[in-house]
Amino acid sequence: MSALQGLRVLDISSGIAGPFCARLLADAGADVIKIEDPRGGDATRRENPIFADHRLEDISALFIYLNQNKRGVSLNIESVTGREILKQMAEKSDVVVESFAPGTLERLGVSHGELRRIRPGIVLISITDFGQTGPYRDYKATHLTLSALGGWQQGEATREPIQAGFPVLYYMAGLWGAIGALAALRGSHQDEGQHVDISVMDVCLNANTPTKVRELFGLSWKREGQRWVGGGEQPNSPALARRACLDGHGGRARRRRAFLQCTQEGADPAGTGSARQRMGEGQDAV
Questions:
Q1: How far apart are CA 242 and CA 253, in angstroms?
Q2: What angle do the packed helices 200-207 and 209-216 form, to 10 degrees?
Protein backbone atom coordinates (compact mmCIF):
# COMPACT_ATOMS: atom_id res chain seq x y z
CA MET A 1 0.00 0.00 0.00
CA SER A 2 1.39 3.40 -0.99
CA ALA A 3 1.74 6.13 1.62
CA LEU A 4 -0.84 8.45 0.02
CA GLN A 5 -3.15 5.82 -1.42
CA GLY A 6 -6.73 7.09 -1.29
CA LEU A 7 -5.74 10.74 -1.53
CA ARG A 8 -7.29 12.60 -4.49
CA VAL A 9 -5.43 15.62 -5.91
CA LEU A 10 -6.52 18.03 -8.65
CA ASP A 11 -3.58 19.64 -10.44
CA ILE A 12 -4.76 22.78 -12.24
CA SER A 13 -1.29 24.33 -12.19
CA SER A 14 1.11 24.86 -15.08
CA GLY A 15 4.82 25.44 -15.57
CA ILE A 16 7.26 23.67 -13.25
CA ALA A 17 6.62 24.39 -9.56
CA GLY A 18 2.95 23.37 -9.33
CA PRO A 19 3.17 20.27 -11.54
CA PHE A 20 6.31 19.14 -9.69
CA CYS A 21 4.48 19.54 -6.37
CA ALA A 22 1.61 17.39 -7.63
CA ARG A 23 4.01 14.87 -9.14
CA LEU A 24 5.69 14.33 -5.77
CA LEU A 25 2.29 13.54 -4.28
CA ALA A 26 1.57 11.19 -7.18
CA ASP A 27 4.88 9.42 -6.67
CA ALA A 28 3.83 8.73 -3.08
CA GLY A 29 0.61 7.07 -4.24
CA ALA A 30 -1.93 9.89 -4.48
CA ASP A 31 -4.46 9.80 -7.30
CA VAL A 32 -3.52 12.99 -9.15
CA ILE A 33 -5.61 14.32 -12.03
CA LYS A 34 -3.84 16.82 -14.28
CA ILE A 35 -6.29 19.38 -15.71
CA GLU A 36 -5.16 21.21 -18.85
CA ASP A 37 -6.70 23.96 -20.94
CA PRO A 38 -7.90 22.43 -24.25
CA ARG A 39 -6.70 25.57 -26.05
CA GLY A 40 -3.06 24.56 -25.88
CA GLY A 41 -2.39 22.61 -22.73
CA ASP A 42 0.50 23.13 -20.36
CA ALA A 43 3.29 25.29 -21.80
CA THR A 44 5.88 22.69 -20.81
CA ARG A 45 4.54 20.48 -23.59
CA ARG A 46 6.43 22.74 -25.98
CA GLU A 47 9.72 22.95 -24.08
CA ASN A 48 12.66 21.37 -25.89
CA PRO A 49 13.50 18.60 -26.32
CA ILE A 50 10.24 17.51 -27.92
CA PHE A 51 9.85 13.93 -29.10
CA ALA A 52 10.06 13.51 -32.86
CA ASP A 53 7.71 10.51 -32.84
CA HIS A 54 4.38 11.70 -34.28
CA ARG A 55 2.58 9.50 -31.75
CA LEU A 56 3.97 11.76 -29.01
CA GLU A 57 3.22 15.00 -30.79
CA ASP A 58 3.27 18.08 -28.55
CA ILE A 59 4.84 16.18 -25.65
CA SER A 60 8.25 17.15 -24.30
CA ALA A 61 10.62 15.30 -22.01
CA LEU A 62 10.02 17.96 -19.34
CA PHE A 63 6.25 17.52 -19.54
CA ILE A 64 6.58 13.77 -19.04
CA TYR A 65 8.97 14.25 -16.12
CA LEU A 66 6.65 16.70 -14.34
CA ASN A 67 3.45 14.73 -14.94
CA GLN A 68 4.37 11.09 -14.52
CA ASN A 69 1.98 8.95 -12.47
CA LYS A 70 -0.91 11.36 -13.14
CA ARG A 71 -4.17 10.96 -14.96
CA GLY A 72 -5.16 13.75 -17.34
CA VAL A 73 -8.25 15.58 -18.50
CA SER A 74 -8.82 18.58 -20.78
CA LEU A 75 -11.06 21.23 -19.24
CA ASN A 76 -11.57 24.96 -19.85
CA ILE A 77 -12.22 26.25 -16.34
CA GLU A 78 -12.82 29.76 -17.66
CA SER A 79 -16.11 28.59 -19.15
CA VAL A 80 -19.26 28.17 -17.09
CA THR A 81 -19.49 24.48 -17.93
CA GLY A 82 -15.81 23.94 -17.17
CA ARG A 83 -16.10 25.57 -13.75
CA GLU A 84 -19.10 23.45 -12.86
CA ILE A 85 -17.21 20.29 -13.81
CA LEU A 86 -14.21 21.47 -11.77
CA LYS A 87 -16.45 21.97 -8.74
CA GLN A 88 -17.88 18.49 -9.16
CA MET A 89 -14.34 17.08 -9.26
CA ALA A 90 -13.31 19.15 -6.23
CA GLU A 91 -16.24 17.72 -4.28
CA LYS A 92 -14.46 14.36 -4.40
CA SER A 93 -10.91 15.67 -3.90
CA ASP A 94 -8.66 16.35 -0.92
CA VAL A 95 -6.07 18.72 -2.43
CA VAL A 96 -6.04 21.26 -5.26
CA VAL A 97 -2.72 22.56 -6.62
CA GLU A 98 -2.78 25.82 -8.60
CA SER A 99 -0.34 28.43 -9.91
CA PHE A 100 -2.59 31.14 -11.37
CA ALA A 101 -1.88 34.82 -10.78
CA PRO A 102 -3.26 35.93 -7.39
CA GLY A 103 -6.95 36.74 -7.59
CA THR A 104 -7.64 34.50 -10.60
CA LEU A 105 -9.52 31.78 -8.68
CA GLU A 106 -11.65 34.44 -6.99
CA ARG A 107 -12.49 35.94 -10.38
CA LEU A 108 -13.48 32.50 -11.70
CA GLY A 109 -15.63 31.76 -8.66
CA VAL A 110 -13.51 28.85 -7.41
CA SER A 111 -11.66 30.50 -4.53
CA HIS A 112 -10.62 28.53 -1.47
CA GLY A 113 -13.74 29.74 0.29
CA GLU A 114 -15.93 28.39 -2.51
CA LEU A 115 -13.99 25.12 -2.60
CA ARG A 116 -14.44 24.75 1.16
CA ARG A 117 -18.16 25.27 0.76
CA ILE A 118 -18.20 22.41 -1.72
CA ARG A 119 -15.72 20.19 0.11
CA PRO A 120 -15.10 21.05 3.78
CA GLY A 121 -11.53 20.27 4.75
CA ILE A 122 -10.09 20.67 1.25
CA VAL A 123 -6.47 21.89 1.00
CA LEU A 124 -5.56 24.46 -1.65
CA ILE A 125 -1.87 24.82 -2.58
CA SER A 126 -1.09 28.10 -4.37
CA ILE A 127 2.42 28.48 -5.81
CA THR A 128 3.23 31.88 -7.32
CA ASP A 129 6.28 34.09 -7.79
CA PHE A 130 5.61 36.48 -4.89
CA GLY A 131 2.73 34.95 -2.97
CA GLN A 132 -0.91 35.90 -2.50
CA THR A 133 -0.29 39.05 -0.45
CA GLY A 134 2.19 41.92 -0.24
CA PRO A 135 3.27 44.74 -2.57
CA TYR A 136 4.86 42.36 -5.12
CA ARG A 137 1.96 39.90 -5.43
CA ASP A 138 0.90 41.16 -8.88
CA TYR A 139 4.41 41.39 -10.30
CA LYS A 140 5.48 38.94 -12.98
CA ALA A 141 8.90 37.35 -12.78
CA THR A 142 11.18 34.77 -14.34
CA HIS A 143 13.67 32.46 -12.68
CA LEU A 144 16.37 34.96 -13.68
CA THR A 145 14.74 37.89 -11.90
CA LEU A 146 13.77 35.80 -8.87
CA SER A 147 17.31 34.49 -8.40
CA ALA A 148 18.68 38.02 -8.80
CA LEU A 149 16.29 39.52 -6.23
CA GLY A 150 16.89 36.62 -3.85
CA GLY A 151 20.67 36.80 -3.97
CA TRP A 152 21.24 33.59 -5.89
CA GLN A 153 23.09 35.19 -8.77
CA GLN A 154 26.80 35.24 -8.12
CA GLY A 155 29.90 36.01 -10.08
CA GLU A 156 33.19 37.82 -10.17
CA ALA A 157 34.11 41.43 -10.75
CA THR A 158 35.57 40.56 -14.14
CA ARG A 159 32.43 38.95 -15.56
CA GLU A 160 28.66 39.14 -15.55
CA PRO A 161 26.61 37.55 -12.72
CA ILE A 162 25.55 33.96 -13.28
CA GLN A 163 22.53 31.98 -12.14
CA ALA A 164 21.96 28.29 -11.51
CA GLY A 165 22.19 26.08 -14.57
CA PHE A 166 18.51 25.08 -14.33
CA PRO A 167 15.41 26.61 -12.67
CA VAL A 168 16.17 25.09 -9.27
CA LEU A 169 13.97 27.58 -7.38
CA TYR A 170 10.84 26.33 -9.13
CA TYR A 171 11.61 22.74 -8.15
CA MET A 172 12.31 23.84 -4.59
CA ALA A 173 8.97 25.67 -4.51
CA GLY A 174 7.26 22.50 -5.72
CA LEU A 175 8.94 20.52 -2.95
CA TRP A 176 7.80 23.05 -0.36
CA GLY A 177 4.31 22.87 -1.81
CA ALA A 178 4.23 19.09 -1.34
CA ILE A 179 5.49 19.45 2.23
CA GLY A 180 2.86 22.13 2.85
CA ALA A 181 0.14 19.85 1.50
CA LEU A 182 1.13 17.01 3.80
CA ALA A 183 1.36 19.34 6.80
CA ALA A 184 -2.05 20.83 6.02
CA LEU A 185 -3.61 17.40 5.64
CA ARG A 186 -2.09 16.30 8.92
CA GLY A 187 -3.23 19.33 10.84
CA SER A 188 -6.45 20.35 9.10
CA HIS A 189 -9.85 19.95 10.69
CA GLN A 190 -12.63 18.31 8.75
CA ASP A 191 -14.70 21.51 8.59
CA GLU A 192 -11.89 24.03 7.97
CA GLY A 193 -9.39 23.06 5.31
CA GLN A 194 -6.23 25.04 4.61
CA HIS A 195 -4.90 27.45 2.00
CA VAL A 196 -1.12 26.99 1.67
CA ASP A 197 0.53 30.05 0.09
CA ILE A 198 3.94 29.24 -1.45
CA SER A 199 6.02 32.16 -2.74
CA VAL A 200 8.99 31.28 -4.94
CA MET A 201 10.72 34.40 -3.60
CA ASP A 202 10.25 33.19 -0.02
CA VAL A 203 11.75 29.86 -1.03
CA CYS A 204 14.69 31.65 -2.62
CA LEU A 205 15.37 33.81 0.42
CA ASN A 206 15.03 30.93 2.86
CA ALA A 207 17.42 28.76 0.86
CA ASN A 208 19.91 31.63 0.89
CA THR A 209 19.89 31.76 4.68
CA PRO A 210 23.69 31.38 5.30
CA THR A 211 24.38 34.53 3.31
CA LYS A 212 21.56 36.42 5.01
CA VAL A 213 22.75 35.39 8.47
CA ARG A 214 26.23 36.71 7.68
CA GLU A 215 24.76 40.00 6.47
CA LEU A 216 22.57 40.21 9.59
CA PHE A 217 25.73 40.19 11.72
CA GLY A 218 27.59 42.56 9.41
CA LEU A 219 29.87 39.90 7.92
CA SER A 220 30.26 40.68 4.23
CA TRP A 221 31.33 38.20 1.55
CA LYS A 222 33.61 38.75 -1.38
CA ARG A 223 34.95 36.57 -4.15
CA GLU A 224 38.66 35.74 -4.30
CA GLY A 225 39.29 33.53 -7.30
CA GLN A 226 37.28 30.35 -6.75
CA ARG A 227 36.66 31.02 -3.06
CA TRP A 228 34.18 33.10 -1.09
CA VAL A 229 35.69 34.79 1.95
CA GLY A 230 34.26 37.23 4.43
CA GLY A 231 34.91 39.17 7.57
CA GLY A 232 34.77 37.14 10.76
CA GLU A 233 35.56 33.88 9.02
CA GLN A 234 36.14 31.23 11.66
CA PRO A 235 38.97 28.67 11.51
CA ASN A 236 36.53 25.79 11.00
CA SER A 237 34.41 27.37 8.27
CA PRO A 238 34.46 25.38 5.02
CA ALA A 239 35.86 26.81 1.80
CA LEU A 240 35.36 24.92 -1.44
CA ALA A 241 37.27 25.35 -4.66
CA ARG A 242 37.72 23.42 -7.89
CA ARG A 243 41.12 22.10 -8.83
CA ALA A 244 42.30 20.57 -12.09
CA CYS A 245 43.29 16.89 -11.80
CA LEU A 246 44.84 14.44 -14.23
CA ASP A 247 41.43 12.96 -15.06
CA GLY A 248 39.21 16.03 -14.78
CA HIS A 249 38.38 18.34 -11.88
CA GLY A 250 37.95 17.83 -8.16
CA GLY A 251 36.77 19.85 -5.21
CA ARG A 252 38.97 21.05 -2.35
CA ALA A 253 37.53 21.65 1.09
CA ARG A 254 39.48 23.22 3.91
CA ARG A 255 39.54 21.58 7.36
CA ARG A 256 37.71 18.43 6.36
CA ARG A 257 38.83 14.88 7.05
CA ALA A 258 38.62 12.95 3.79
CA PHE A 259 40.50 10.80 1.33
CA LEU A 260 42.26 11.95 -1.82
CA GLN A 261 42.67 9.52 -4.67
CA CYS A 262 44.52 10.74 -7.73
CA THR A 263 44.74 9.02 -11.07
CA GLN A 264 48.34 8.77 -12.06
CA GLU A 265 50.52 6.52 -14.15
CA GLY A 266 51.71 3.47 -12.25
CA ALA A 267 49.23 3.86 -9.39
CA ASP A 268 48.18 0.76 -7.49
CA PRO A 269 44.96 -0.49 -9.23
CA ALA A 270 43.54 -1.53 -5.88
CA GLY A 271 43.96 2.02 -4.59
CA THR A 272 45.98 0.94 -1.57
CA GLY A 273 49.33 2.42 -2.56
CA SER A 274 50.67 5.91 -2.86
CA ALA A 275 47.79 7.00 -5.06
CA ARG A 276 45.59 7.25 -1.98
CA GLN A 277 46.57 9.78 0.62
CA ARG A 278 44.67 10.34 3.79
CA MET A 279 44.32 14.02 4.58
CA GLY A 280 44.73 14.82 8.25
CA GLU A 281 42.64 17.15 10.38
CA GLY A 282 43.26 20.81 9.60
CA GLN A 283 44.71 20.15 6.15
CA ASP A 284 43.27 20.61 2.69
CA ALA A 285 41.15 17.62 1.70
CA VAL A 286 38.95 16.42 -1.12
A1: 9
A2: 70
pLDDT tens-digit series, residues 186-206 = 876 666 889 999 999 999 888
Q: Cβ distance 214 to 220 under 8 Å?
A: yes
Question: Phi and psi at residue 55, in whole multiples of 5°?
Answer: -70, -20
3-state helix, strand, coil in the chain (%, to 5): 30, 25, 45
Per the structure, how many domains does the chain have?
Answer: 2
Q: Is 180 within the bounds of a domain?
A: yes
Q: Decide: residue 83, CB within 10 A, 0-12 exposed, 13-18 middle, 19+ buried.
A: middle
- Across the chain, what does the average pLDDT equal? 81
pTM above threshold 0.90: no
Domain co-membership, 50 together with 187: yes
Q: How far apart (Å, rounded) are the C-alpha atoms in residues 128 and 101?
A: 7
**Domain enclosing residue 172, as ranges:** 8-207
Question: Could you tell me the CATH number of the domain that includes residue 178?
Answer: 3.40.50.10540
Q: How confident is the model at residue 254 (pLDDT cuts 50, 70, 90)?
A: low
